């Protein structure tokens, strides 16, 4: 542990501390309104978002794998947390968050950090855009000041609530929200160093209190006063029944948290030129999500926008993230009563802007314009996120991505019947020789190119089936460009071998690479074919085949004479590449 912290703070100076102090305070100022807004949108009290910002923010900075990561509640969690709260309640949300922390910790310990990057881009863009729509639409009621609204898990029911209660429109709330929105948009343009969310929140809250007091709903009037202390340490009610019921939401929280945190760490790497440790980052996220529920906090992850602000503000080390958490704690202790006076209408535009910024609308449009299978996956993932839930959307998106990948990989495999071309300078084999009407009644030769796996093995077997039906004396398979074979591909190859051998034919394989060779050795197919039937170059295989066929039948063949075959079959001296058999120039 000492070595861990020494490595993170080696060469640290007072100049670095100044940078961390300034950036930590700036990010802390931004994190306070966001923490409360994300908690409210997730269906829990605003102070729980502040507790999460403090506890999880400090843990992520201390134990994570990125030097600049800022952690806390984020918008990506809102649909998942709201659904969990509505289905299981707040107390069980703490249990789900704790279980998610355990999962993240174990993922990091098992070195699974690199696996997150294999989630297809259309899936991540699709569910991120869907989450943005849910966040934005979820704040319409607060923006308009509607009353009597009941929250639902599905999108259409929430939209119906807005239309049904539209007659409760509050123009004071619209004025408050509009003022905050204008300041949110204008502050970055004219005062780029001042957080727009803070200015919008303070000014609109003061304006509402002075111009039309008690006309708009506030945090205090809706949720009660915000306590000015951290809650006492308390273990969530973890039982065997709870664990079984909450495994699915906990897993979704863990996966989403892992994806978001590693994406944020990648953004930080791009801005600083440093490299994060993905496994250590998952461990840090796990510790943070196990610690936050002990103080009533909700699940947390790395926040891309706050991390970027941290770097731009001059952060030098993980200490900036610790300072950001401590600053929020100090504000909680000193200014909590004032936060209770913040109008809910002032929080709405903050979340709306967050949703707009996280929507990845440019990337969404770019992928949609490609009009490929990725476009379909993007659209389906997006619609399922909005209309059903994130779990179904990600599962279907990943399934469709896997199917599309298998289809694309199977299209790569080509099986072509070839013969030597006597007119070619280097006497290479050509497919058009066969197409031109030439053929050999005793030897069939095929070039197999591409991965031979479960999605493509049937294609190879079907392509060669016609040749097997004619029962040639010898079947030569040129497998120098088959980089990979799985057990399903091996099974299709084995069926070809059995069919040829059952008709007393001979199967020869040339140029096979190391991985396919190792697979067929382990399955026993190598011994079934016979070690003497594997050749480094096609020329040697053809020589072997010609030595075992009826020469008279070849001499009577109009396609090409026996002597020509023998001349073309002379092996070329090609040095063997280390670790694999040499390939003939045919």
Describe the structure.
By secondary structure, this protein is mostly helical. The chain has helices at about 1-10, 15-40, 45-65, 80-90, 90-110, 120-140, 140-145, 155-165, 170-190, 195-210, 220-225, 240-270, 280-290, 305-310, 320-340, 345-360, 360-370, 375-385, 390-410, 430-435, 455-470, 485-500, 515-525, 525-530, 540-545, 550-555, 560-570; strands spanning about 70, 300, 415-420, 430, 445-450, 475-480, 505-510, 535. A hairpin with an 8-residue loop joins strand 3 (about 415-420) and strand 4 (about 430). The relative contact order is 0.13.
Using brief descriptors, characterize the structure shown:
mainly alpha; six-stranded mixed sheet; 27 helices; elongated
Briefly say what this structure is.
With 586 residues, the protein is mainly α. The chain has helices spanning 2-8, 14-41, 46-63, 78-88, 90-109, 121-138, 140-144, 155-164, 171-190, 196-211, 219-223, 240-272, 278-291, 304-312, 319-339, 344-358, 361-369, 373-387, 390-412, 432-435, 457-469, 487-502, 514-523, 525-529, 538-546, 551-555, 562-568, and strands at 71-72, 301-302, 414-420, 429-430, 443-449, 474-481, 506-510, 534-535.
């Amino acid at each position: 542990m000492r070595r861990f912290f020494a490595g993170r703070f080696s060469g640290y100076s007072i100049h670095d501390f100044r940078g961390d102090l300034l950036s930590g305070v700036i990010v802390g100022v931004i994190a306070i309104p966001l923490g409360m807004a994300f908690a409210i949108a997730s269906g829990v009290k605003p102070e729980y978002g502040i507790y999460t910002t403090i506890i999880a923010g400090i843990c992520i900075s201390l134990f994570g794998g990125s030097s600049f990561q800022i952690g806390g509640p984020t918008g990506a969690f809102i649909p998942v947390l709201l659904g969990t709260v509505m289905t299981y309640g707040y107390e069980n949300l703490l249990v789900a968050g704790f279980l998610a922390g355990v999962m993240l910790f174990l993922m990091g310990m098992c070195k699974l950090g690199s696996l997150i990057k294999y989630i297809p881009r259309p899936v991540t863009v699709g569910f991120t855009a869907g989450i943005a729509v849910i966040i934005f639409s979820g704040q319409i009621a607060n923006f308009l000041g509607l009353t009597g609204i009941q929250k639902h898990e599905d999108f259409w029911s929430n939209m119906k609530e807005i239309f049904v209660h539209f007659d409760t429109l509050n123009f004071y709330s619209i004025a408050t929200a509009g003022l905050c929105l204008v300041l949110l948009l204008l502050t970055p343009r004219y005062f780029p160093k001042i957080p727009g969310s803070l200015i919008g929140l303070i000014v609109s809250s003061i304006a509402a209190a002075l111009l039309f007091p008690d006309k708009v709903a506030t945090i205090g009037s809706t949720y009660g006063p915000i306590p000015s202390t951290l809650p006492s340490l308390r273990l969530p009610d973890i039982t065997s029944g709870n664990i079984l019921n909450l495994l699915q939401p906990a897993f979704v929280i863990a996966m989403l948290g892992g994806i978001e945190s590693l994406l944020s760490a990648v953004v930080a790497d791009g801005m600083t030129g440093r490299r994060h440790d993905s496994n250590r980052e998952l461990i840090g996220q796990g510790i943070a999500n196990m610690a936050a529920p002990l103080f009533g906090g909700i699940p947390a992850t790395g926040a891309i926008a706050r991390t970027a602000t941290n770097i731009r503000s001059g952060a030098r080390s993980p200490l900036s993230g610790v300072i950001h958490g401590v600053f929020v704690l100090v504000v909680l202790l000193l200014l909590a009563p004032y936060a209770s006076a913040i109008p809910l209408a002032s929080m709405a535009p903050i979340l709306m802007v967050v949703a707009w910024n996280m929507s990845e609308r440019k990337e969404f449009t770019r992928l949609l314009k490609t009009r490929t299978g990725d476009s379909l996956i993007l659209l389906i993932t997006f619609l399922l996120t909005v209309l059903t839930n994130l779990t179904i959307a990600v599962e279907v998106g990943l399934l469709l991505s896997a199917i599309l990948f298998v289809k694309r990989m199977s299209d790569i495999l080509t099986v072509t019947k070839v013969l030597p071309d006597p007119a070619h300078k280097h006497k290479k084999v050509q497919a058009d020789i066969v197409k031109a009407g030439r053929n050999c009644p005793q030897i069939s030769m095929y070039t197999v190119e591409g991965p031979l796996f479960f999605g493509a093995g049937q294609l190879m077997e079907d392509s060669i089936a016609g040749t097997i039906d004619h029962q040639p004396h010898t079947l030569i398979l040129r497998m120098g460009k088959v980089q990979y074979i799985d057990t399903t591909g091996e099974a299709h190859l084995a069926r070809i071998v059995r069919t040829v051998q059952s008709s007393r034919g001979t199967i020869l394989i040339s140029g096979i690479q190391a991985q396919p060779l190792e697979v067929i050795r382990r399955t026993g197919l190598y011994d079934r074919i016979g070690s003497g039937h594997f050749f480094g170059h096609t020329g040697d295989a053809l020589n072997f085949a010609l030595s075992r066929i009826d020469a008279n039948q070849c001499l009577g063949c109009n396609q090409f004479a026996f002597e020509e075959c023998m001349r073309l079959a002379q092996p070329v001296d090609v040095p063997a590449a280390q670790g694999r058999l040499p390939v003939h120039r045919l």
